[in-house]
Specification:
The complex is a heterodimer.
Chain A: H1 2-29, H2 43-52, H3 59-71, H4 86-121, H5 126-140, H6 143-157, H7 173-199, H8 202-209, H9 214-226, H10 228-232, H11 234-252, H12 257-267, H13 270-298, H14 301-305
Helix pairs in contact in A: 1-3, 1-13, 4-5, 4-7, 4-11, 5-7, 6-7, 6-11, 7-9, 7-11, 8-9, 11-12, 11-13, 12-13
Chain B: H1 4-7, H2 30-39, H3 42-60, H4 96-132, H5 134-149, H6 152-162, H7 167-175, H8 179-193, H9 197-204, H10 209-245, H11 257-264, H12 273-300
Helix pairs in contact in B: 2-12, 3-4, 3-12, 4-5, 4-7, 4-8, 4-10, 4-11, 4-12, 6-7, 8-10, 9-10, 10-11, 10-12, 11-12
Classes of the chains: A mainly alpha, B mainly alpha.
Chain lengths: ~300, ~300
């Protein structure tokens, strides 16, 4: 168990290191320097700027310094907005993204599992078909299409919500729905198929034969085993919601990290792109790490072998 | 098995009426069997039909219009659909019918090309892992695991920020880590298959590793591979649309469905048709690929037969 977690942790660090290095060298591979486009600047000033950002040192030295700063949590200074630290800007804009993300994750898990449970219990009945049609649609409709669609219907046409902005509690509703629909669809399908498997398992027959009542069988045996695979989806879901939020924040005009990321891409603000990439990277790899640990905790069968079956 | 209905009377030489029936049933290959089962799946067949229509339309659609996808017509901007412009025009007066089908063409090219490259790399990498096993497998598998744990879209975004945007760059960027899932599928299948007798027979007759892999192992692993390819096409299409949305997709005047949706966002309460057509088409395409993939899985995976 400890070995398993330690190895997963090591993996995470290694992946992070690769991501950080790749980011650094890719950004260095861009021809020219970030101040080339600034016209009418005296060469001395350009030199000062280069010095300030440490761009005149040899690459190896820059790289080591960059890694050292990363460990300290220092992501450098924005190139577009001078005097603004990347880490500060991320900290400033994290709150709305986090709130929406957490809401979306909680709703995805709850609604997804309930939908999957209902579908499995009414297998091959109308309600099952309806739930699965919803699930397939949820997977097929890209989140940004869904976002624009519900924005059009519920905000523009019906006027139930604000079109843009993030001030009142009601402003949560549309972005969270847009983010949650795809994970809900995935979780519902996952839950359904695993529940159907469990319902046919021998130990359920045993439980029935023992004379346990339906409710106990459901809660103690069926649901507990049926939602196991959902745990494995926590990591990918977080990735899904984080990347989704990049676009959703743009559509609903929310000043979160996703917005910062898109802006930095449009402005070619390289330090900011690097910073947000690494921040997202840490976030997603942590989510994956937590998933791996959760998986061992809920499924004791893989404790012995030390790794997930190959 | 779907053909079992015919097999039930195998031992009887005559049926109730007394007419002789064939003693020997023609043997059905795995693929015929899969096709029969797929044909019985209405949803999957409907998806297949839809995809064929979309692909044909993306080839023929732009040809049958008098307009092209890049010429601006500033006198006729944001026109609603009419008999002249069947899907209306966009903010530069470009014909939406032609642009929508050209966009579908780009999206399909991205999806299919990315899936094809994933397939090739995945088969080679996964084939080597699965066939040789042992230390080779351990090292290669660890490498792919580490690569896989780096968030996919972040890598793609980084690559597109650095390199010149364009169709080729997008396809390459999407495949940089996209092949990993395929390689794992191939690896798992090969590992299961390589201990089977027919492989042993081939080996004992002196078949080379490559021959064993391509002649004996891979053809038997085709089912799961086909399903994975079918499902990876829509995910590549989605990723491309997502990147277009960030302005990192194909560059104007070339359009993809994703970039058209992005363009339509400005003023789409006034000109909603600019959104409807590309959005509906991308949803339909992804839906059809997903449903077809599900259908293929049911048809090709013998383990799911009940």
């Amino acid at each position: 168990m400890v070995r398993y977690i330690a190895s997963k942790f090591l993996y995470m660090l290694l992946s992070l290191f690769i991501l950080a290095s790749a980011t650094f060298f890719l950004m260095k591979a861009i021809p020219g320097n970030p101040f080339m486009s600034e016209k009418n600047v005296q060469p001395q000033i350009k030199e000062r700027l280069m010095e300030q950002y440490g761009l005149n040192k040899p690459i190896a030295e820059q790289y080591l310094q960059y890694l050292g700063n990363l460990v300290k949590g220092d992501l450098g200074i924005s190139m577009k907005y001078q005097n603004q630290e990347v880490s500060q800007r991320i900290a400033d804009t994290f709150s709305p993204s986090l709130q929406i993300g957490i809401f979306a994750i909680v709703i995805s898990i709850v609604v997804g599992i309930v939908l999957g449970l209902i579908a499995a219990l009414y297998h091959r009945k109308l309600i099952d078909n309806v739930a699965m049609i919803i699930a397939v649609l949820g997977i097929a409709v890209p989140s940004f299409v869904l976002a624009t669609l519900i924005q059009y219907i519920f905000a523009l046409k019906l006027g139930w919500f604000d079109v843009m902005g993030f001030n009142e509690p009601s402003d949560f509703v549309l972005p969270v729905i847009a983010l949650a629909v795809q994970p809900i669809a995935f979780i519902a399908r996952l839950t359904r198929s695993s529940m159907l498997e469990v319902l046919n398992a021998d130990y359920i027959k045993t439980a029935k034969a023992k004379g346990l009542n339906g409710f106990t069988i459901m809660t103690r045996h069926v649901v507990r085993n049926g939602i196991l695979p959902v745990v494995t989806y926590v990591g990918p879901m977080t990735a899904n919601i984080v990347t989704g939020s990049v676009v959703i924040e743009q559509i609903f005009g929310i000043g979160g990290i996703g917005r910062v990321f898109v802006d930095s891409i449009t402005n070619r603000d390289y330090t900011m792109i690097m910073g947000v990439t690494i921040f997202y990277g840490v976030l997603l790899m942590l989510a994956r790490f937590v998933t791996d640990i959760l998986y061992v905790l809920v499924d004791p069968r893989i404790k012995l072998s030390g790794r997930k079956g190959s | 098995m779907s053909a079992s209905g015919n097999n039930n009377n195998k031992n009887a030489t005559t049926d109730v009426v007394g007419e002789p029936i064939a003693l020997q049933q023609e043997s059905i290959s795995l693929w015929q069997d899969a096709w029969i089962r797929l044909k019985g799946n209405k949803v999957a067949m409907f998806s297949l039909g839809t995809l064929i229509v979309i692909i044909l339309a993306s080839i023929v659609g732009p040809m049958i219009s008098a307009f092209n996808y890049y010429s601006n017509d500033l006198m006729n901007t944001n026109k609603a659909p009419s008999s002249v412009h069947w899907f209306g025009t966009d903010n530069l007066g470009r014909d939406m019918w032609v642009r929508t089908w050209m966009g579908a063409r780009i999206s399909l090219i991205v999806g299919l090309a990315a899936a094809a490259i994933d397939l090739i790399i995945g088969i080679i990498y996964g084939g080597i892992m699965g066939y040789f096993g042992g230390r080779v497998d351990t090292i290669m598998n660890k490498f792919s695991e580490i690569l896989y744990s780096i968030p996919y879209l972040l890598v793609v975004i980084l690559l597109l920020v650095v390199f010149e945007p364009g169709l080729g760059t997008i396809i390459v960027a999407l495949t940089v880590t996209g092949w990993i899932t395929m390689s794992w599928i191939v690896r798992g299948e090969i590992m299961q298959l390589k201990s089977r007798d027919f492989v042993l027979a081939a080996r004992s007759m002196g078949a080379s590793a490559g021959r064993q892999l391509f002649k004996h192992l891979l053809p038997n692993a085709l089912g799961p591979i086909i399903v994975t390819v079918t499902l990876s096409v829509p995910s590549a299409i989605f990723s491309e649309a997502f990147l277009s949305f960030l302005g990192l997709g194909v560059q104007a005047p070339v359009a993809s469905l994703g970039s058209m949706i992005n363009d339509a966002l400005t003023g789409w309460n006034l000109y909603p048709w600019r959104m409807w057509f590309p959005a509906a088409l991308i949803c339909l395409t992804m839906l059809a690929f997903n449903l077809l993939g599900d259908g293929l899985r049911d048809a090709l995976d013998p383990k799911l037969r009940k």
